[in-house]
Design brief:
This protein is 77% helix and 1% strand. Strand 1 and strand 2 form a beta hairpin. It has helices at residues 2-35, 41-45, 58-89, 92-106, 110-124, 131-156, 159-167, 172-200, 204-207, 230-240, 246-281, and strands at 48-49, 54-55.
Length: 282
């Protein structure tokens, strides 16, 4: 009976894995099939014209890069500080509360972050639409992802290493800077890449705070300084344009966005595999 249950579990797990991979392959294949013809050097280097029917997505790429970079600059220090505080400075009962809060925050729908950003930055601070507002909202959204990944790596450091450092008389600050951070940077890096891959594809947080469809180039200020972005570009053209020439452009933009997200995710994969291997050997 036990062997049968074990085999059933293996078959079910393998089936679920194959189904997940199959869905990914179908989605990627469909996007590539519909949009590959639109990809060209001019498509990547020209600005949009004729409401998306002509031109390219250069400033959408620039705007997405600005938003993702801003999110990283905001989220990485906050997430790293949060993870270190939980692992080193916070007592066990409060640690569990903070970890539960991190996981709960990680499950908040992105549209809620967008509404918060709209209420706080757009209405309260009167930033209007601004690249800084969008970057800050995206940064807040991915803090839990980065913090959880970094915390996992901190906990994977062998207790003997920490005890030896404490036995040498290192303070907590010295322990963090000379022992924990160097050995856990891979977790911080992989969490950052995974968080940025999510941020790059989000529409709801930035549509309320940072982006417009056309007319923006490189921002020259902070207040009332919107940008263009790939997810919002796809969203608007897919639902509002009736020009048949737009269809290929929409799929082409989807190919570029998918390639960006997959690249960030694939960059994180070897880092996480290395971290798990190191933890297994420890």
């Amino acid at each position: 009976m036990r062997r049968a249950l074990d085999r059933l579990f293996v078959v079910t797990a393998c089936g679920a894995a194959l189904l997940t991979v199959g869905v990914l392959v179908v989605v990627v294949g469909l996007v590539l099939f519909r949009g590959a013809a639109a990809i060209s050097w001019t498509f990547l280097t020209e600005q949009v014209r004729s409401v998306g029917a002509e031109g390219g997505i250069f400033f959408q790429l620039v705007g997405t890069g600005i938003l993702v970079t801003t999110a990283a600059l905001v989220a990485v220090p906050v997430a790293a500080g949060t993870a270190i505080a939980i692992a080193v400075y916070v007592a066990a009962p409060r640690r569990r509360v903070l970890e539960a809060a991190l996981h709960a925050l990680n499950g908040v729908p992105s549209v809620v972050f967008g509404l918060f950003g709209f209420a706080f930055f757009f209405q309260l601070l009167d930033f209007r639409k601004s690249w800084l507002s969008g970057g800050l909202v995206l940064g807040m959204m991915i803090v839990p992802t980065i913090a959880v990944a970094f915390l996992e790596k901190l906990r994977a450091i062998p207790d003997a290493t920490v005890e030896a450092a404490v036995g040498l008389g290192l303070s907590r600050a010295a322990l963090v800077t000379t022992v924990l951070l160097p050995q856990a940077l891979s977790g911080l890096g992989s969490g950052t890449l995974l968080g940025l891959s999510r941020a790059a594809g989000e529409t709801a947080p930035i549509m309320f705070t940072a982006v417009i469809f056309a007319g923006a180039t490189v921002p020259r200020g902070i207040v009332d300084s919107p940008v263009l972005a790939l997810p919002y570009h796809i969203f608007v053209m897919a639902q509002d344009s009736f020009d048949p020439r737009v269809g290929e452009k929409v799929w082409g933009t989807a190919v570029v966005l998918l390639a960006l997200v997959l690249a960030l995710s694939l960059l994180a994969l070897p880092v996480r595999l290395k971290a798990h291997e190191e933890a297994r050997r420890a």
